[in-house]
């Protein structure tokens, strides 16, 4: 089995829990081959490379860009909400499309190589049987696009994190880019929900409704070295107790810069550069060994810390991080384990010099009689690694999910369409569509590849409208079908961004884009924008009651912007009923009748030729080789002087 495992590089926690699972899988199944893709430091995977690398069963690939934006911290205990949200939004619109495109191209090439070889040889680039992702969401979109089963392997998701950060600064609805992250998570075949999962409210509840969930019991790294031998190696007096400080690698020494850690009969250890602390190099230290040595652990909450103190049975005093919603979920899960001591150390107390450790000692004395006779590892279910591996194998054996193509939000196959060449010397020429595809190989015919007609008119050099500095307003942005209402705005906005980025990449001045809700059927559609130059509407003639709402909204926009020009592009969509004597375009007939009855007296309508032949670079697209004007209309509409609004 070939496994492609994407691992978030935000902190060390994602990598350390994944390396534990990877080691278990490779040890358990000699046929398993795993490629880990991450931006996390290589030293976290050194043991795997040493034990399984020579047989080409484990490879590490470090990406050029991060797999996600994570969060930004000003210090070990403080999350910078504003910078975190800004950076995440930029990652969504800049790095995400490039990352998805490059990974799909790489995987398509690997698949082609495997098909050419007939089988996957040891050491060759291989096509995965499954894609796993620890917290990162974009890999799940990649898996769905390619039709590969996938699983989220995490106790939290980034959309839940960003949602909580967003709510700290605004009561406004979630922006489209956060909703787009949720859509990526929906692409997973299953969520392998690990210890300390977020409570089932808000985003987690929504995810559980769309993605099957398998609960993974507790798993984690345990001690390897003998505690007594470790104490002797570091010359820790036998009578001394040990306090392990674990605040992560984010400038934790600042937390202790003004603190004196000289307490009788205590030795402090940790990755903290301080004269009173025995320094532990995180690159070479197996922290679970020190969990077993320690009499108390003081630090911040994380998946690794919580699972490791649970397996060691060591009391844990944590300093809370504001705005980090993973923390209460992990504390709740850890506190539920039998006999384990976990208690918050208030931040104001922790920052009060030496008083904080006096408090810790006092509380430890009170807890002394409550220490379990047996380590918690012997009292709770800790075979999560076995359950995890069983779930992965089941996913591979199940039917492969259908491959999804260009209609998926931000899908990268046929991502960019450029239009060029229309009219020269008054003679109509074929319009050529050039497709820029991120996937390897030639462009393949894709159902529904066709250009709307209004862009062809705009590109006509004889068109009477100037685009320089123009403000466009599109009604009824098309994003596909079977989309839940809450996701529509997010998908619409996310579909626009790749084209803006492509324009910037070509050195063009990109337009500013925004997506807003506008209810055509509302009794009061509210204030409408002014200063609009061009109004666009394509594929908006479907249902009669929506047609009435669309026409009123369009007329209201023209009334608010009397110098604007509107373009309506619609297919007539002929169909036939047993009672009809001929095929009819009933929705279009209703549309045309309403225009004639109510709006023709107020509108100037010019009908344009839409019979241009459409070709794709490299050959004709079979599904829609040409349009003819019998089945499609393109109207140019302006408001007649003195025309007023109507309902």
TrEMBL record:
<dbReference type="InterPro" id="IPR029063">
    <property type="entry name" value="SAM-dependent_MTases_sf"/>
</dbReference>
<protein>
    <recommendedName>
        <fullName>Glycosyl transferase family 28 C-terminal domain-containing protein</fullName>
    </recommendedName>
</protein>
<dbReference type="Pfam" id="PF10294">
    <property type="entry name" value="Methyltransf_16"/>
</dbReference>
<dbReference type="InterPro" id="IPR053205">
    <property type="entry name" value="GHMP_kinase_L-arabinokinase"/>
</dbReference>
<dbReference type="InterPro" id="IPR019410">
    <property type="entry name" value="Methyltransf_16"/>
</dbReference>
């Amino acid at each position: 089995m070939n496994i492609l495992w994407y691992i978030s590089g935000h902190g060390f926690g994602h990598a350390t829990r994944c390396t534990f699972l990877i080691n278990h899988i490779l040890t358990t199944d000699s046929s398993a081959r795993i490629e880990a893709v991450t931006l996390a430091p290589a030293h976290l995977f050194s043991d795997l490379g040493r034990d399984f690398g020579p047989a080409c069963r484990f490879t590490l690939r470090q990406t050029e860009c991060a797999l996600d934006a994570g969060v930004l911290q000003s210090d070990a205990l403080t999350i910078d909400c504003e910078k975190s949200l800004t950076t995440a939004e930029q990652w969504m619109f800049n790095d995400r499309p490039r990352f998805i495109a490059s990974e799909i191209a790489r995987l398509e090439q690997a698949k082609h190589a495997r098909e050419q070889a007939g089988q996957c040889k040891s050491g060759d680039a291989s096509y995965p049987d499954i894609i796993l992702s620890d917290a990162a969401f974009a890999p799940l979109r990649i898996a769905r696009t390619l039709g590969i089963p996938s699983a989220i392997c995490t106790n939290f998701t980034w959309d839940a994190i960003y949602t909580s950060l967003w709510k700290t600064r605004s009561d406004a609805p979630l922006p489209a880019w956060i909703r787009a992250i949720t859509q990526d998570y929906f692409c997973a075949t299953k969520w392998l929900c690990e210890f300390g999962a977020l409570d089932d409210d808000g985003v987690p509840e929504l995810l559980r409704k769309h993605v099957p969930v398998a609960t993974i019991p507790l798993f984690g790294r345990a001690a390897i070295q003998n505690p007594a031998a470790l104490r002797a190696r570091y010359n820790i007096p036998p009578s001394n107790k040990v306090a392990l400080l674990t605040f992560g690698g984010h400038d934790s020494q600042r937390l202790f810069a003004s603190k004196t850690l000289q307490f009788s009969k205590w030795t402090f250890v940790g990755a903290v550069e301080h004269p009173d602390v025995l320094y532990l190099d995180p690159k070479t230290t197996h922290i679970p060994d020190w969990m077993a040595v320690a009499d108390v652990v003081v630090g911040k909450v994380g998946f690794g810390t919580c699972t490791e103190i649970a397996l060691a049975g060591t009391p844990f005093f944590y300093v809370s991080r504001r705005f980090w919603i993973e923390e209460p979920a992990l504390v709740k899960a850890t506190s539920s384990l039998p006999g384990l001591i976990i208690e918050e150390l208030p931040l104001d107390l922790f920052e009060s010099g030496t008083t904080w450790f006096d408090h810790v000692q006092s509380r430890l004395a009170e807890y002394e009689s409550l220490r379990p006779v047996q380590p918690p590892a012997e009292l709770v279910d800790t075979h999560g690694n076995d359950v995890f591996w069983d779930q992965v194998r089941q996913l591979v054996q199940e039917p492969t999910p259908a491959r999804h193509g260009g209609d998926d939000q931000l899908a990268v196959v046929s991502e960019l369409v450029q239009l060029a060449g229309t009219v020269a010397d008054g003679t109509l020429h074929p319009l050529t569509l050039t497709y820029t595809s991120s996937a390897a190989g030639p462009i393949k015919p894709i159902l529904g590849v066709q250009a709307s007609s209004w862009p062809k008119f705009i590109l006509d050099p004889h068109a009477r409208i100037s685009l320089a500095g123009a403000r466009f307003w599109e009604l009824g942005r098309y994003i596909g079908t079977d989309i839940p209402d809450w996701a529509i705005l997010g998908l619409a906005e996310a579909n626009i961004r790749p084209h803006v980025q492509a324009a910037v990449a070509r050195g063009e001045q990109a337009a500013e884009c925004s997506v807003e809700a506008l209810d055509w059927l509302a009794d009061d559609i509210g204030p409408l924008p002014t200063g609009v130059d061009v109004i666009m509407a394509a594929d908006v003639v479907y249902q009669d009651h929506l047609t009435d709402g669309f026409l009123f909204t369009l007329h209201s926009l023209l009334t608010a912007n009397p110098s604007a020009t509107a373009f309506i592009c619609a297919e007539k969509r002929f169909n036939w009923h047993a009672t009809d004597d001929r095929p009819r375009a009933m929705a279009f007939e209703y549309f045309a009748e309403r225009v004639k009855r109510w709006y023709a007296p107020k509108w100037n309508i010019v009908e344009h030729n839409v019979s241009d032949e459409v070709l794709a670079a490299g050959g004709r697209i079979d599904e829609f080789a040409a349009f003819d004007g019998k089945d499609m209309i393109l109207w140019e509409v302006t408001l007649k002087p003195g025309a007023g609004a109507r309902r």
